Amino acid sequence: MGSATTQALAASVQALAAASGVTLDTSRELFAAAHAVGDSSHLSGALADASASAAARQNVVDAVFAGFSQNTRDVLKAVVTERWSDADELIDGIEELAIRAAAVADSGADIEAELFGFSRVIAANSELELALGSRLGGGAAKGELVERLISGSVSAPASLIVSSLVRQPRGRRIRQLLNRAMRIVSSQHGRVVATVHSASELNEAQRTRLSDALSRRYDGKVSLNVVIDPAVLGGLRVQIADDVIDGSISARLADLRQKLAG
Length: 262
Hints:
The protein is α+β, with helices and mostly antiparallel strands. The protein folds into three domains: 103 residues; 78 residues, no CATH class; 72 residues, Glutaredoxin (3-Layer(aba) Sandwich), CATH 3.40.30. Helices cover 65% and strands 10% of the residues. The protein is built from 13 helices and four strands. Strands 2-1-3-4 form a four-stranded mixed beta sheet, with helices on both faces. Belongs to the ATPase delta chain family. It comes from Microbacterium oxydans. One of its GO terms (molecular function) is proton-transporting ATP synthase activity, rotational mechanism.
């Protein structure tokens, strides 16, 4: 992410936070805007054109998205006022705002856990992952497939996020999309996500102790996504962003083998 995009995204997130009455429809419209901009090089170029005035870019928003709510158009106009490193990062920014709006619309739903649960379903089903990642078949059909798969099992915001992302992956793998969405939702809720690999399920007391310990270490609330992985043999392997804490028996055995071989 370029420095211009970093600043533009921060300002855009603030604009969304300042918007009144953010609903799931706001998220739905922002996803639709991201798709429209992603599908049109002419539109993405016009909205990301730093040589054009901010007013001109805002006029494009009003013209193209006239059917959207005033609230959504105001957020989009704040987005295009900023200077983005390139058109792709502008699209990423609008998509992130859509995910954040879904999280705001239903703060009571455990969206991170629902997204994580679906990512584990994908990980366990190579045929499904291949179908969703294939260049064959339209985005709309893939979105409808996902909606049927998760209908009734996840909240409306989680369903909207997943189905919207698979409709326009833009070359990204489905699990990559879900992991990014989890990080964004957690950030919106003021949390960071820790993926924990354990040989067996953690009980509630173990989850609480681990979450508290990580929260102290990372100076903020940490939510846990636990993956049951017999390969770790015992102990835990914890990943937060690029940080990996590996206290598993398998890691210690590997280290021992390396020392013996050396």
